[in-house]
Task: structure prediction
Amino acid sequence: MKGRASIHRDFSIAQIDDRLYSAFIEHMGRAIYSGIYEPDHPTANANGFRSDVLDLVRALKIPAIRYPGGNFVSAYKWEDGVGPKEDRPVRLDLAWRSKETNQVGINEFARWARDAEIEMMLAVNLGTRGIEEARNFVEYCNHPSGTYWSDLRRSHGVEDPYGVNMWCLGNEMDGPWQIGHMEAKEYGRLADETSKAVKAFGKGIETVVCGSSNDQMPTYPDWERQVLEECYENVDYISLHKYFGNNSRNSLNYFAKVEETGRYIQSIAGVIDYVKAKKRAKNDIYICFDEWNVWYHNREQDSKNWHSWDWPEAPALLEEDYNLEDAIFVGGLLNEFIRRSDRVKIACIAQLVNVIAPIRTERGGKAWATSIYYPYQFASLYGRGTALNVAVDCPRYDEAVAQDVNYLDVAAVLAPDGRSITVFAINRSPDEAMELDLALHGFDDLKLIDHQVMGGDSSLARVANTCAEPNKVTPRKGDRLAVGEGGLKGELPAFSYSMIRLSVG
Ligand code: AHR
Result:
């Protein structure tokens, strides 16, 4: 099959916000305990954090991380996690039916984030708590000294404030499963008032209001309209969440969920525009897609675990063995975020370690990268700069979730120094290689720097990286593309993801 694409240096979509490649980690399953934190582990540092995991995290160059939840945050008391560890209470976490020991709290997490070179994005509990506790938490984190909460932080050994600028106003408040779930209008009012209180602590603070938990929610997209009508002028982002799966074992339908996500983003962008016009507002609101990932391989087993009444400590939950098909899907979803970077400014892969994650660990044992680690890493390393428009002409297909879907999925990014361009290209066809003809206009002196490929054989779609075999699905150097007159030509293998870097004059 043939695929033509055309890019012009001057036809751009937007300046990509680096935070498009952010992550999320929750007190859930083994994400924190025996994921990032395991004081008895042979690689543990002086603070009890696993160095093997930190190395894998650092290599992703993650700009920001959302913490501490998730559903967990909606009944969380942040005060339980500060002060001497031996005095911290053990609590029941109602969201995941687990025991929370509070051995990691904000100060431990901040130390980890500093070592991982990631900025924190914190969520406040608007389920069982409200403005008062949110206000105290911000003061504890951000105020220098001389007040009750800031001096309490200092008494806990943290002299300098953290200066956290991104605050999430609760989590998935549209979901009946959420502790403290609310009606849209009710939540919009609370979010408005909480946002004002949080922002009162200083210039530069941005807040994220909860949008829909997914685009199948019965309240979607009216939830966004009602919430924004209450708080539009006082918030900066509206969050969206969406998880994906392929229970029908149909790769083309699975890959078409990328298009479905594009429609989701477009619809919410429309709601934002509608409310802005209705309120004659001056400010802009952007999308913060702060939970996205593949989540389906272990659903049955997980629902058994979290419906048990044993209240285990850090049980194995949502530990997915991602395969090649998932890696191609994740590469496609990241392409969609790049193509929508005029409206989506922040996105967080959910989650980072063990729980639906690019990084997995064995308690007391090794850490490894799952298949989705690689497309996420390539996007984070090379997807920064200016998103360029890509016109694509290729055969298309119809599936249940979307029609007229391109077999060729491409996104392109011009580096901030204008000296290189990265093209992320996917051939979705399970059985046909694609003859690619990529025209690059307005660029001189094109040179191929690197081509990394994953896939090439759909019979290996379900091969996964596991603890026993952690390197089954990894990128390899491609050798079938070459720079020619005005662009790039060659072959994209069937069922493959490619990261292609070119230097430009
Ligand atoms: O990431 C797992 C869970 O998915 C989060 O806690 C919640 O926000 C979402 O439903």
Notes: The chain has a mean pLDDT of 97. The chain has two domains: 2-10+387-503, 17-382. The longest helix spans residues 251-279.
